């Protein structure tokens, strides 16, 4: 067997750990197989001596099986759970989008994308959103050679964020020639039209002393701009029926799945909520009819059917496109020193829509000019009445995010005697320019809703325009009907606002490594490394939470606490956090060529980190690699890892997520108060303990076959948790602990907590990070690789599987919830955690020109129990599987091919299940796209 060793020197953080895996690869002609050993440690010179589990995937293989983006292809690997993509975005202004609702965030083991470290060619990628998370769509696609996925803690070698693991995109530094990849795809519903173009070129120069390469990538997907594009997932909620003994979710009143869910609190035309006409609604413009209740009355003011409003107008899969340019050059400065420089720039545009804005109990004059005379008379002596309305006639809030990413790296590497050394400097700058179209100006809306007849000319005008010249251009708004308002009135009450978070990072790192002395079993190798990193964060906004409405001249629906714009963002001047680190790593051979010990090696690393905010912290890692013989290897690691709070967690500006319909458990009333994200400068780095134990078996009696199993156990204490005041668990904890400040201080009320009367309903819901969480999860990863010949043709198969049966989550004052195997954990930003997932691929070359691949993805059935509580009519979401095909045909010459890719061949749609109080409609581990067909070609010269 020919052994090919690829040494990938990864300069991320202050040092580098082993990234080793044995994978079977076929030669192009298929005559023989070769083992590819990938090594990324400064101290381990042979990839067979790695205690750290890693999955190595060739980029070419990834793109053949999923030819859209590398992010989509990587998410086919079972170790990624809860990754945030097109289908799993928060609302347009949500914190976990970080200002960009269509970000692509890789998430290992569902521990959170902020706990997965992203490297580009071994260098730490600067954050691209407010939580310090990286949108991996900024990685240049065309020249990525492979992706190494480390599953396990690696903070001792890379620093912060490597709690769940590391994803390293490795670039082909030696590409010569030209290649192109172009494709077009669309779903079987004739939507989600997707275009992709990739170009790359490379050449040597200066008598082979230098090398330059450049790539360009363009990607454009139409997505699914509205949930109406897949109507089976609209307006479904998991609810209990109110009014029955035991309450919702009890044994006698179990939760059930209900679709066609409507609100009982408002209508699209306007529901009168008090006075003589209470309970009537303007289902037609200017015409009142009795409000028709649905067939079932559910909890939290919802019902099945009826006249109430529905949700589901928001985006299902955000449309977006990006353009990337990548340039890299390296040059031999001397026989011992080589320099390199590279630049990545990415431009990305995302578009998302929100549900219509709803307002409850707005006040109207009984003499409103738009209110028909018969209804004015019916009101009797009352001078005002209240009405709740969903303003569907106003165009949906549209967020367009213009994202710019810049990453620059330059460095030197070489040899000094018997030692290897390298120094690198990185600079990253990222900006998100958000434009919000159709933002409702509440001050103008209050003025426009109060329509009167001008006694001077008999025309309908805004009352405020008669006394305040600031409203001379006010256009009266007719709210009495679904679409009674004029286009001019809608234009008057809406505006365009802007929000611009920016991030930058500078990183200096270097290392020196080599053999320091000899032991009987081999040389002791060590590496010393150091790093200095500084991050900056800035926010610009023209819709500030300090901009309150000027109520002068306004009679109704305006107070001192009324924001001009519901979606408001505080500005933040540049703030910085510097990090200084030093690390030591060593590889010590203990035994060699002894009975049952072909080799036994110890690997250890320790790192000291000093933060400007959060103090100092030590992290460490120890590992053993035991080769019993040529067939069996046992490996184990133990580590202490860290995740530091991002600048947004520490100092994030006040971020208003808008008013909603939050049910206040204390007062048993609906609150329309806004949810507000705030920073907390007192949080500290969180620490996690990682343990992995694994076995690799390469049976000699079956050439080309390899089995790997790695068990893991992660305990994260003092986890940084976004405590959401509006969450049911937060409210319950506050009440159960008698008003404990950690939780109750996040719920803003006009009166003391002990007052449970309706006037004490919450006016604001604050969300902030605290070191109060504890996360524990465990499981195992399995991998089977086989590469040989079948009927004298190249054949290969690979099975990747993950078993994660439990995911324990605890915050003080609440019970420990087990979110393992739960479809809807009810924990932002966590997604579903199926206990078993696998991806299996079979490849076969029928001829020298024609190759076919089949990929099967499967997840196990999941429970509907959020945290294991409550009773459900149908407590399980069925298992879900998709089958994908890829056909390629070589034309003209070996490097040119046509390909046809079919995702979800049998058009399996996700099981229609729903989460408590949401309209997700399906587990976010699944895709609602349906069958998707891509046709493309690749050329290489």
Description of the structure:
With 941 residues, this protein is mainly β. The chain has one domain: Maltoporin, Chain A. Helix content is 6%, strand content 48%. The protein contains nine helices and 50 strands. The protein has a 22-stranded antiparallel beta barrel. The longest helix is centred in the C-terminal third of the chain and has 9 residues, at 728-736. The protein is elongated.
Uncertain residue ranges: 1-40, 243-247
Radius of gyration, CA atoms, in whole angstroms? 30 Å
Quaternary organisation of the protein chains: single chain
Task: Please bin the fraction of helical residues.
Answer: under 10%
State the end-to-end distance. Answer: 29 Å
| Secondary-structure class | mainly beta
The biggest beta sheet is recorded as: 22 strands, antiparallel, barrel
CATH class: Mainly Beta
| Overall geometry | elongated
CATH topology: Maltoporin, Chain A
Would you tell me the overall average pLDDT? Answer: 86
CATH superfamily: TonB-dependent receptor, beta-barrel domain
Count of helix runs:
9
- Strand percentage, roughly? over 45%
CATH architecture: Beta Barrel
Q: What is the domain tally?
A: 1
Compute the number of strand runs. 50
Which short descriptors sum up this protein?
941 residues; mainly beta; Maltoporin, Chain A; 9 helices; 6% helix; disordered N terminus
Element layout with pairings:
Elements: E1 2-7, E2 22-26, E3 33-39, E4 54-58, H1 59-65, H2 70-74, E5 116-120, E6 123-124, E7 144-151, H3 155-158, E8 165-171, E9 177-187, E10 194-205, E11 210-221, E12 237-239, E13 256-258, E14 261-263, E15 271-272, E16 280-284, E17 287-290, E18 296-298, E19 302-304, E20 320-332, E21 337-353, E22 358-365, H4 373-378, E23 384-390, E24 398-416, E25 419-440, H5 442-449, E26 451-453, E27 460-462, H6 487-493, E28 494-519, E29 522-541, E30 572-594, E31 597-611, E32 615-627, E33 632-643, H7 647-651, E34 655-659, E35 662-664, E36 669-671, E37 674-677, E38 686-697, E39 705-724, H8 728-736, H9 741-744, E40 747-748, E41 764-790, E42 793-810, E43 817-818, E44 836-845, E45 850-859, E46 862-863, E47 876-877, E48 880-890, E49 897-903, E50 932-940
Parallel strand pairs: 1-3, 5-8, 37-41
Antiparallel strand pairs: 2-3, 4-7, 5-6, 7-8, 9-10, 9-50, 10-11, 11-20, 12-13, 14-19, 15-23, 16-17, 18-19, 20-21, 21-24, 22-23, 24-25, 25-28, 26-27, 28-29, 29-30, 30-31, 31-32, 32-33, 33-38, 34-37, 35-36, 38-39, 39-41, 40-41, 41-42, 42-43, 42-44, 44-45, 45-48, 46-47, 48-49, 49-50
């Amino acid at each position: 067997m020919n052994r090919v060793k690829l040494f990938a020197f990864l300069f991320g953080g202050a040092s580098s750990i082993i990234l080793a895996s044995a994978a079977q690869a076929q030669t192009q002609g298929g005559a023989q197989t070769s083992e590819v050993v990938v090594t990324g440690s400064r101290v381990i010179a042979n990839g067979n001596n790695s205690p750290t589990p890693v999955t190595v995937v060739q980029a070419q293989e990834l793109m053949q099986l999923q030819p859209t983006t590398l992010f989509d292809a990587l998410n086919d690997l079972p170790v990624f759970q809860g990754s945030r993509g097109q289908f799993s975005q928060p609302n347009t202004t949500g914190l976990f989008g970080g200002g960009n609702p269509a970000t692509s965030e890789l998430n290992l083991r569902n521990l959170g994308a902020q706990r997965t470290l992203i490297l580009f060619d071994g260098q730490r990628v600067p954050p691209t959103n407010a939580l310090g998370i990286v949108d991996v769509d900024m990685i240049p696609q065309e020249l990525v050679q492979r992706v190494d996925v480390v599953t396990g803690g690696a903070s001792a070698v890379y620093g912060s964020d490597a709690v769940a693991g590391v994803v390293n995109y490795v670039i082909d530094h030696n590409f010569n020639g030209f290649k192109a990849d172009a494709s077009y795809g669309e779903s079987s519903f004739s939507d989600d039209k997707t275009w992709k173009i990739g170009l790359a070129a490379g050449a040597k120069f200066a008598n082979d002393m230098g090398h330059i390469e450049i790539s360009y990538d363009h990607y454009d997907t139409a997505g699914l701009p509205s949930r109406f594009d897949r109507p089976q997932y609209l307006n479904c909620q998991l609810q209990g029926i109110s009014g029955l003994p035991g309450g919702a979710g009890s044994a006698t009143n179990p939760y059930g799945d209900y679709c066609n869910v409507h609100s009982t609190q408002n209508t699209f035309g306007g529901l009168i909520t008090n006075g003589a006409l209470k309970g009537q609604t303007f289902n037609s413009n200017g015409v009142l009819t009795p409000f028709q209740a649905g067939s079932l009355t559910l909890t939290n003011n919802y019902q099945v059917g009826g006249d109430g409003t529905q949700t589901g107008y928001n985006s299902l899969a955000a449309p977006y496109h990006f353009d990337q340019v990548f340039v890299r050059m390296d040059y031999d400065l001397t026989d011992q020193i080589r320099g390199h420089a590279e630049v990545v720039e990415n431009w990305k545009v995302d578009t998302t829509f929100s549900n219509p804005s709803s307002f409850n109990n707005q006040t109207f004059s009984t003499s409103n000019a738009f209110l028909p005379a018969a209804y004015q008379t019916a009101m009797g002596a009352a001078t005002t009445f209240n009405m709740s309305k969903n303003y569907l006639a106003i165009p949906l809030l549209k967020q367009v995010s213009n994202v710019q990413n810049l990453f620059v790296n330059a460095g030197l590497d070489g040899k000094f005697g018997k030692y290897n050394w390298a120094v690198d400097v990185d600079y990253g700058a990222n900006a998100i320019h958000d434009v919000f179209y159709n933002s409702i100006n509440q001050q103008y809306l209050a003025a426009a809703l109060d329509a009167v007849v001008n006694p001077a000319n008999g025309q309908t005008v805004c009352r405020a325009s008669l006394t305040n010249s600031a409203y001379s251009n006010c256009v009266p708004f007719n709210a009495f009907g679904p679409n009674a308002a004029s286009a001019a009135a809608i234009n008057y009450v809406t505006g365009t606002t802007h929000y611009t978070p920016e991030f930058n990072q500078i990183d200096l790192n270097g290392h020196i490594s080599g053999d320091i002395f000899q032991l009987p079993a081999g040389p002791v190798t060590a590496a010393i490394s150091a790093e200095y990193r500084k991050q900056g964060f800035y926010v610009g906004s023209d819709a500030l939470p300090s901009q309150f409405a000027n109520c002068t001249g306004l009679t109704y629906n305006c107070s001192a606490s009324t924001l001009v714009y519901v979606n408001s963002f505080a500005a933040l001047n540049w703030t910085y956090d510097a990090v200084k680190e030093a690390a030591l790593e060593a590889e010590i051979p203990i035994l060699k060529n002894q009975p049952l010990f072909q080799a036994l090696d110890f690997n250890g690393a320790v790192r000291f980190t000093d933060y400007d905010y959060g103090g100092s912290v030590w992290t460490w890692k120890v590992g053993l690699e035991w080769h019993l013989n040529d067939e069996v290897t046992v490996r184990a690691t133990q580590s202490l890892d860290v995740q530091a709070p991002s600048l947004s967690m520490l100092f994030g500006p006040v971020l208003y997520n808008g008013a909603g319909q939050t049910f206040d458990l204390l007062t048993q009333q609906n609150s329309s108060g806004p949810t507000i994200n705030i920073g907390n400068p007192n949080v500290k780095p969180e620490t996690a303990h990682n343990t992995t134990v694994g076995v690799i078996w390469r049976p000699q009696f079956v050439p080309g076959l390899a089995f790997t199993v790695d068990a893991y156990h992660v305990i994260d204490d003092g986890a940084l948790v976004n405590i959401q005041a509006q969450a049911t668990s937060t409210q319950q904890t506050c009440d159960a602990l008698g008003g404990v400040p950690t939780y109750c201080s996040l719920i803003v009320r006009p009166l003391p907590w002990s007052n449970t009367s309706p006037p004490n309903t919450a006016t604001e819901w604050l969300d902030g990070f605290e070191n109060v969480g504890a996360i524990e999860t465990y499981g195992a990863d399995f991998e089977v690789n086989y590469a040989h010949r079948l009927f004298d043709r190249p054949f290969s198969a690979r099975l990747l599987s993950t078993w994660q049966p439990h995911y324990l989550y605890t915050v003080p004052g609440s019970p420990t919830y087990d979110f393992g195997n739960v479809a809807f954990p009810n924990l932002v930003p966590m997604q579903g955690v199926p206990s078993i997932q696998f991806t299996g691929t079979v490849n076969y070359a029928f001829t020298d020109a024609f190759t076919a691949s089949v990929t099967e993805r499967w997840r196990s059935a999941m429970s509907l129990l959020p945290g294991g509580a409550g009773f459900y009519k149908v407590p399980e979401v069925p298992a879900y599987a998709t089958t994908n095909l890829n056909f390629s045909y070589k034309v003209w010459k070996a490097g040119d091919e046509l390909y046809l890719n079919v995702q979800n061949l049998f058009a399996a749609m996700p099981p229609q299940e729903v989460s408590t109080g949401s309209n997700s409609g399906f587990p976010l581990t699944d895709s609602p796209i349906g069958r998707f067909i891509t046709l493309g070609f690749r050329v290489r010269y």
